[in-house]
């Protein structure tokens, strides 16, 4: 099995309306009601971020795309062959995600992954309430996320063995003297540098950050203005990453995890790529201390 792309994510919210305002006014996506929840639209699909009512605010699931029913059926046989316990989605779950069929399972660190095929949409043109012309999606998927992985070795091996992902590169995070936490960046069946990264530690919200990509630096700047105008907490200043070359900044979401908003992420020819370890998060910028002070970073590290 080799998953094609990150198709969607699911979050839970005590007040889904908070995501409507945040999604439209700050992210620049369009929102519509889906039952008791809502969908945030960023391209021709019915939604890429699905919000479900819940008892807590947080990240719930990552939806991975397979291209056909044949691939989906083969994937189920592979899951069974690997001894992975999975659950078939209910009609209500498929309807929320706008997919033909879906199963879900947990990785060794407890993150929920969903395998789905086919999508249902009216192909209505994306029209951003904030004037964002387009997000970079298509065959690259919606972006990427960073998930908690206290069992990082077992989780990385699971994703490679079961979902067919590959290791793009590695970073060792050093939030305090004597403390090291690994971050493994993973790619799937497209050229995006990483569709998922694993953070060696616990994260209460279920996600470190979720990344969306736009097609110009001007759109990043306009999002920064919207963040400030709506009083959203800045989590990291503008900067450019060493590994995927994304120029971006970070801010807090209603789900308790950060949003990375960027442009310029590079795509990779995996047949010509060599895995590496980066000793620096960014080529310039990305001051995370503005959002995560020393005490918060130490607390996060101690939870690992």
State the main characteristics:
18 strands, 21% helix
How are the SSEs placed, and which strands pair?
Elements: E1 5-13, H1 16-27, E2 30-34, E3 37-41, E4 49-53, E5 58-66, H2 69-81, E6 87-88, H3 91-97, E7 99-106, E8 112-119, E9 144-148, H4 152-162, E10 166-176, E11 179-187, E12 196-199, E13 209-213, H5 217-229, E14 234-241, E15 247-252, E16 258-263, E17 276-278, E18 282-285, H6 294-302
Parallel strand pairs: 1-4, 5-8, 9-12, 10-17, 13-16
Antiparallel strand pairs: 1-5, 2-3, 3-4, 6-7, 7-8, 9-13, 10-11, 11-12, 14-15, 14-18, 15-16
Q: How would you sum up this structure, described in words?
A:
It is a single chain. It is built from six helices and 18 strands. With 304 residues, it is of the alpha+beta class. The protein is globular. The protein starts with a strand and ends with a helix.
From the N-terminal CA to the C-terminal CA, the straight-line distance is 31 Å
User: Over all CA atoms, what is the radius of gyration?
Assistant: 18 Å
The share of residues in extended strands comes to 35-45%
Number of helices: 6
Choose one word for the global shape: globular
What helical percentage do the residues reach? 10-25%
H/E element string?
A: EHEEEEHEHEEEHEEEEHEEEEEH
Strand order of the largest sheet: 17-10-11-12-9-13-16-15-14-18
Major sheet summary line: 10 strands, mixed
- By helix and strand content, what is the structural category? alpha+beta
Q: Unreliable stretches, pLDDT < 50, 5 or more residues?
A: 298-304
Mean pLDDT over the residues: 94
The number of strands is 18
């Amino acid at each position: 099995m080799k998953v094609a792309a990150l198709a969607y994510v699911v979050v839970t919210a005590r007040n889904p309306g908070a995501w409507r305002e945040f999604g439209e006014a700050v992210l620049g996506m369009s929102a519509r009601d889906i039952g008791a929840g809502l969908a945030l639209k960023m391209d021709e699909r019915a939604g890429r971020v699905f919000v479900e009512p819940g008892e807590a605010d947080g990240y719930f699931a990552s939806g991975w795309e397979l291209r056909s029913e044949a691939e989906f059926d083969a994937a189920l046989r592979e899951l069974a062959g690997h001894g992975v316990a999975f659950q078939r989605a209910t009609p209500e779950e498929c309807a929320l995600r706008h997919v033909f069929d879906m199963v879900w399972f947990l990785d060794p660190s407890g993150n929920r992954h969903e395998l789905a095929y086919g999508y249902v949409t009216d192909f209505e043109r994306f029209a951003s309430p904030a004037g964002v012309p387009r997000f970079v999606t298509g065959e690259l998927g919606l972006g990427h996320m960073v998930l908690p992985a206290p069992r990082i070795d077992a989780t990385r091996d699971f994703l490679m063995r079961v979902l067919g992902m590959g290791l793009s590169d590695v970073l060792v995070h050093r939030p305090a003297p004597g403390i090291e936490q690994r971050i493994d960046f993973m790619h799937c069946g497209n050229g995006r540098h990483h569709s998922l990264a694993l953070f060696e530690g616990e994260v209460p919200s279920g996600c470190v950050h979720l990344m969306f990509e736009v097609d110009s630096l001007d759109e990043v700047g306009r999002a920064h203005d919207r963040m400030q105008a709506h009083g959203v907490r800045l989590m990291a200043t503008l900067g450019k990453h060493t590994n995927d070359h994304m120029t971006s900044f970070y801010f807090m979401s209603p789900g308790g995890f950060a949003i990375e908003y960027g442009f310029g992420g590079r795509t990779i020819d995996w047949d010509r790529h060599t895995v590496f370890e980066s000793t620096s998060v960014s080529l310039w910028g990305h001051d995370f201390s503005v959002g995560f002070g020393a005490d918060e970073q130490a607390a996060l590290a101690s939870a690992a």
